[in-house]
Design a protein that fits this description.
With 299 residues, the protein is mostly helical. It has 13 helices and three strands, in the order αααααααβββαααααα.
Length: 299
């Protein structure tokens, strides 16, 4: 019964809410964990669960080491599931509404500075794959794309005549983004090579060696490969380029609202983490330059 209701709920999320496969997988795993907890508590009906049970579940997974941000996602899945059950007439109350996830320190995103970005984007062009990889990394950094947004791009998503692209982000929301000159040139070069890899009927902008749409994992592996080959400090991954885009844009413009719109953040508080990153950089400059800023014990 529980498994059937989970399948119905995930189908609802996929068809009516149009959530991404990645989000659906997370919700499915989170709710299976919650189901197991309910069975351990001998709760056979969803209407039997109360707020105290949800708090107990949260405390349990927190003790097991789950981070506050991950627990927030779990609670979001439970709330959504109970809204679905209420819509179906199976419950009257949502026991997760009053439960909050424990707070955890907000981790500042790792970025690359302008010199490191230049080092990474200086890819030796030897074949169609290297041309594709260069275009992918240039575009992520140029437009601040999420990896899911990048791999979903089709040929008709870009307009090189006015240096823009149309991308579908979280919640199936569409936004228009500019493409920088370097990225436009890299994409134009890729389009000259694309026919060597792509199947004739393939609509994806970026394709794999098999000729079909490139996947998330393949992009991650290629970026990690280039980061190591070119000697870039730290692990190179798509989100690090997105973070670098946001940090560099905010540092140069100071326009938080514009950066929010470019990133596709629904809540500006999500974007505000980059203001902390920018302030961290300012503090490093200050402490290195001001004669009376050095901390005790430093020379």
């Amino acid at each position: 019964m529980k498994e059937a209701q989970l399948e119905q709920f995930l189908h609802y999320l996929a068809t009516e809410r149009q959530l991404s496969p990645h989000t659906l997988d997370n919700y499915g795993r989170d709710l299976l964990r919650f189901f197991e907890f309910a069975e351990e508590q001998s709760l056979s009906e969803w209407a039997e669960l109360e707020t105290k049970h949800v708090r107990q579940f949260v405390a349990t997974i927190h003790r097991q080491g789950l981070a506050g941000s991950s627990i927030q996602r779990v609670l979001s899945a439970i709330r959504s599931f109970y809204r679905f059950l209420s819509r179906e007439g199976l419950v009257e109350q949502n026991p997760a509404l009053a439960v909050q996830a424990p707070k955890s320190p907000r981790k500042l995103p790792s970025t690359l500075d302008a010199d490191q970005m230049g080092q990474l984007l200086d890819i030796p062009i030897i074949d169609a794959v290297s041309v594709r990889d260069a275009a992918i990394m240039e575009l992520i950094y140029s437009s601040g794309l999420r990896i899911s947004e990048l791999v979903s791009l089709d040929m008709h998503s870009i307009d090189l005549s006015d240096h823009s692209l149309r991308v579908t982000g979280k919640g199936s929301k569409t936004r228009m983004l500019p493409i920088g000159a370097k990225a436009s040139a890299a994409i134009e070069r890729w389009l000259d090579y694309r026919y060597e890899l792509a199947d004739y009927i393939e609509t994806a902008l970026f394709v794999s060696k098999r000729g079909t749409r490139i996947g998330v994992r393949a992009v991650q592996q290629r970026m990690d490969y280039w980061g190591k080959r070119l000697g870039v400090q730290g692990k190179v991954h798509p989100h690090r380029l997105r973070h670098s885009f946001a940090s560099h844009m905010l540092e140069s413009s100071g326009d938080l609202r514009a950066v929010q719109q470019l990133l596709g953040h629904e809540d500006i508080s999500t974007t505000q983490i980059y203001t902390h990153l920018d302030f961290q950089h300012l503090m490093q400059v200050y402490e290195g330059a001001h004669p009376r800023a050095h901390k005790k014990g430093k020379k």
